[in-house]
Amino acid sequence: MTGTAPHNTPESRPMEAEVHRLDVSHTGGDAYTVEVRGHRIRVDQPAEAGGTDTAPTPTELFAASLATCVAFYAGRFLHRHGLPRSGLRVRAGFVMATDRPARVASVRIVVVPPPALPEERRAALLAVASHCTVHNTLEQSPEIGVELAP
């Protein structure tokens, strides 16, 4: 049956994407507080950039988000395979671009596996950790809209 409209049965309807929300409010100077699911995260700027250095910068939290996502995926891999997570660490470093627009030019993530990780599991751990949600999002950029409220 060509040329007919698709049937919208409950089984064939696309699922509505859940919108995850957070709220950012100014708390003074260059500091802001993020509220998400009842948690509060503070951000600020270093003193040399005009802030009071009471918290990480948004850009530092960006890198931290990637690093913690990698750590989470690595930890889940270890747990699934009955391996201890004790000693698992992730280090991150980033470099800012020197041209415009202002942005992060590169991020380097180093996964430090737990000492008990068998050699034959290292490649699989790296493969899993390299495909965390935040990394996938950076590889396939999301649509971003910035607008003013009415």
What topology emerges from the helices and strands here?
Layout: E1 23-28, E2 31-36, E3 39-43, H1 58-80, E4 89-96, E5 104-112, H2 122-129, H3 133-139
Antiparallel strand pairs: 1-2, 2-3, 4-5
What is the helix content?
25-40%
> What percentage of the residues does DSSP assign to strands (E)?
15-25%
Mean pLDDT: 92
Class inferred from helices and paired strands: alpha+beta
> What's the SSE pattern?
EEEHEEHH
Shape: globular
CA radius of gyration: 21 Å
User: In which order are the strands of the major sheet placed?
Assistant: 1-2-3
Distance between the termini: 47 Å
Q: List low-pLDDT spans.
A: 1-10
| Total helical elements | 3
Main sheet properties: 3 strands, antiparallel
Beta-strand segment tally = 5
Give an overview of the whole structure:
The strands form two sheets. This protein has a three-stranded antiparallel sheet, with no helix packed on it. A two-stranded antiparallel sheet has the order 4-5. The chain is an alpha+beta fold and 150 residues long. A hairpin with a 2-residue loop joins strand 2 (31-36) and strand 3. The protein has three helices and five strands. The longest helix has 23 residues, at 58-80.
